[in-house]
Amino acid sequence: MKTIKESVRGIIEFIYREGDIDSSLKSAVTMQEGTQIHQMIQSEYEGFEKEVHLKKEFAIDDATVLLMSGRADGIKDDEHGIVIDEIKSTYQDLDDLDENYSFLHWAQAKIYGAIYSEAHGKRDVTVQLTYYSLKNEAAKVIPVVFTYKELTDFLYETVEQYKRWATLTAFLQSRAEVTAKEIKFPFGSFRPGQDVMAKAVYATIRDSENLIIEAPTGIGKTMSTLFPATKALGEGLVDKVFYLTSKTVHRKVALDSYQKLVDEGLNMVVIGLQAKEKMCINDVYKCQPHQCPYANGHFDRVNDALHLFLQDAGLETPESIQTFCEQHVLCPFEFALDLTNFAQGIVCDYNYFFDPFIQIKRHFTQKNAYAVLVDEAHNLHERARDMYSAFLDKNRLLEIRAHVKEMDKGYHKLLGSVNTAFNEQLKTQDEQGLMEDIKLRLVNSINKALAYFLDEGRFSDITKDDEVLDHFFEMHRFLRIYEYFDDQFVIMLDENEEKKLHIRCLDPSKALNETYGMVNNVVCFSATLSPLKFYQQVLGHSGSKRLQVGSPFDVKNRLLVINQVHSTYSKDREVTLRPIFEDVKRTIAERRGNYFVFCPSYAYLKTIKELFDEDYEGHVSVQSSGMTEKDRAEFLEDFVPNPTKTHVGLVVMGGVFSEGIDLHGDRLTGVIIIGVGLPTLSKERQIMKSYYDAHGLNGFDYAFTYPGLNKVFQAGGRLIRTEQDKGILMLIGKRFGQSRYLSELPGHWRPYEIVANEHQFKENIKKIHDLFD
Fold it and tell me: What is the DSSP letter of 583?
């Protein structure tokens, strides 16, 4: 017997949806509907039980049971009868709301009433909706009495409509589990270290724990996580596997790995999600029904098309979804989100799990039996800091205010109030441009502007103007992020733009850890998570298990030279630039081939390029800022096997060529890294340092040393991608010889040679011949 678990709200919103996609207004703004407002209203309940969990099973067929569940905001059951209360927040004028306002709101509350009444005497129920106005903080209660028969008729009618979806879900899930249980490892045997990693991932899923893994290049990290997670799904330990990536190239690798499992017999629905803008097939990226035929009437067409698509669905890429949606006049992005309801594997960006604005809410509002695999997890720290940060730009505010003056005088006036409050906020800054809190006046003025925009604004052109709409979401984001504000955040003015007010997340570990709690388990992994203690702390994995896997490659295939002769401190760069250039030139002269020279900044790259132009006869390629994917591909195409003369690529550490680049064999002979990669000294970094110092950690290491080292490790990881590869890795800079740096080098970067003088340099670069001969 297969049990399909669905929420009341999820079923209601799926079965009864209709009309258009309109991302411009209420569909995109939830304002964290629920938590704070619910708690406030519930605190005033008298005689109500709060957050009442309700559930009921329905036999769909001989093999399938539907378990419908949800939480009623409040239930009162006394001598006067049963009252079911549902709380909803709104920007609408409360006077415009009555029992006919929202079918979906009433449907959800009626289902709760039916389930509760059937279990408590089959009595009539007063179903009431409590609407809370985000405009003026007032509330309105709308009660309606329903008979037991009215409620249960509606309940069973809803279940009847959902039957075909429950049956389909059960079939797809059972098929996936059977084939996942039977598949064999697609490569016959495991690589060294791969079996250790795969077993650890499976055990983590089985035991509902979290895990952080550092596994060097060559282990086969994607398959080492996907295979055991898929086997765990086959055992019924989880219902879905989310594979999260930070870049498109990694998403393609994950989908290719799934294809290998499909070739082994896996038969399950796997969805590759792409950013909304990239999924769009309209002539222009406008998610409004009057501008997009795919958005216009989408919900009227989507369910029948979805059912048709799922009859033959398997491994589905963004391209296959786009093709189908073009034929059936549907929005590919919204269609793909619906497919995740029925998929067992989802490959997508970090945002869809971690970002509070982009997260797929249908999957992560309550804890579910999902396994989450986070690839290239060294990127997650900075990405998460950005996800939980926001800003307000006074100059932008004034531009929009002037722009809307003739469109909507009411909105123009409210933006003036925001500007006045912004000016008052600026007066609270200290000598560093820091502020202790956001003044209530600014919060209220923004809230009023948002409320007007969503209510009266619909009668003017402001809701259809892209610039105004973008600014609306900036203000909305600012308020949402402010709700998270605590000592892990800082309020500060931009260092370069005095009129830009930031709420910056210093430490996302708490937010990340809370997100982990919504799923069965999270596995974060990367080739570069050294030092692991740092990443455990900043990624919210302090209580998680940890694993470091050794490299499968022979250390004799790599010569690591630590050249500590020259200082790379900013104050010394003008003096040491020429000597460093000479060492680079002498190193690459030892063997004809392809080399990456990683520079600490674009400014440094520019100056060393001038020396190459003056005094080097080989082929030199130079990274430029803002390179397109085509530009990057053309850059890498020049790194050909067995070049007729040495080719040097001057690139920036931490840039697009620092990761996700696979140049096998003699397409990359050596990597030379100049400097320890420290982030630019800034006010924000200094604040981060102070924050970690105050929490008993080494603030300089957490704010500067470790993020810099990760850029070094990523750059060095471009070398030696297969068992056959050989190459030289040179680190240039006095600081690399310090114990604080040497002690943090990954285990597979040992042994290494220390160069402290000219004689040692000459002796060590001669070893390049021995390496390749």
Answer: H
Is 208's pLDDT higher than 50?
yes
Per-position b or e across 353-371, b if 16+ CB within 10 A of its CB: bbbbebbbeebbeeeebbb
pLDDT at 96: 87
- Say how far apart CA 246 and CA 258 lie, in whole Å: 18
Residue 491's H or E segment, with its range, is strand 489-493
pTM: 0.93
CA dist., res. 486 & res. 482, Å (int): 9
User: Distance from CA of residue 622 to its chain's centroid?
Assistant: 31
Phi, psi dihedral angles at 410 (to 5 degrees): -65, -45
How large is the average pLDDT for residues 660-685?
A: 95
SS3 content of the chain, % helix, strand, coil (to 5): 45, 20, 35
**Pick from 21, 121, 12: nearest CA to 77:** 121
3-state secondary structure of 732: strand
CA distance 202 to 89: 42
**Distance from C-alpha of 606 to C-alpha of 149, rounded to nearest angstrom:** 78
Fold designation for 388-508: Fumarase C; Chain B, domain 1 (1.10.275)
> For residue 498, what pLDDT band results from cuts at 50, 70 and 90?
confident
CA atoms within 13 A on the CB side of 83: 19
- DSSP label at residue 613: H
Residue 525: helix, strand or coil by DSSP? strand
CATH 3.40.50.300 fits 166-379+519-548, yes or no: yes
Percent share of the chain, pLDDT over 90: 85
Quick one: average pLDDT of 693-700?
Answer: 97
Q: Who contacts 771 (Cβ-Cβ below 8 Å, separation ≥6)?
A: 557, 558, 559, 726, 727, 728
Q: What are the tens digits of pLDDT across the range 257-279? A: 999 999 999 999 999 999 999 99
Q: In CATH, what is the architecture of 2-164?
A: Alpha-Beta Complex (3.90)
The single residue listed with the structure tokens 């790995």 is: 257
> E strand or H helix at 133, and its extent?
strand 125-133
**Please, are residues 653 and 677 in contact by the beta-carbon 8 Å criterion?**
yes
- Which contacts qualify for 10-17: CB closer than 8 Å, 24 or more apart? 10/341, 10/362, 11/68, 11/158, 11/162, 12/104, 12/107, 12/108, 12/111, 12/158, 13/104, 14/162, 14/165, 14/303, 14/341, 15/158, 15/161, 15/162, 16/103, 16/104, 16/107, 17/299, 17/302, 17/303
Tokens of 111: 């289902």
The CA–CA distances, whole Å, from 241 to 69, 135, 166, 229, 677 equal: 22, 40, 20, 7, 35
Fold observed for domain 555-772: Rossmann fold (3.40.50)
> Do residues 260 and 368 make contact, with C-beta atoms less than 8 angstroms apart?
no
Average pLDDT over residues 431-443: 94
**End-to-end C-alpha distance for the chain, whole angstroms:** 64
Q: Where are the domains of the chain?
A: 2-164, 166-379+519-548, 388-508, 555-772
Strand partners, 259: none
pLDDT tens sequence across 450-485: 988 987 776 678 888 889 999 999 999 999 999 999
Fold agreement between 166-379+519-548 and 388-508: no
Could you give the CA distance from residue 96 to residue 78 in angstroms, rounded to a whole number? 31
Question: Given this model, what pLDDT does residue 530 score?
Answer: 94
Lowest mean pLDDT among 46-50, 205-209, 282-286, 360-364: 46-50
Dihedral angle sign, alpha carbons of residues 513, 519, 521, 527: negative
Structure token pair of residue 363: 């999957």
Handedness of CA 508, 511, 513, 519 (dihedral sign): negative
Which residues 6+ apart lie within 8 Å of 422 measured at CB?
Answer: 392, 394, 397, 442, 501
In tens, the pLDDT along 143-200 reads: 999 999 999 999 999 999 999 999 999 999 999 999 999 999 999 899 999 999 999 9
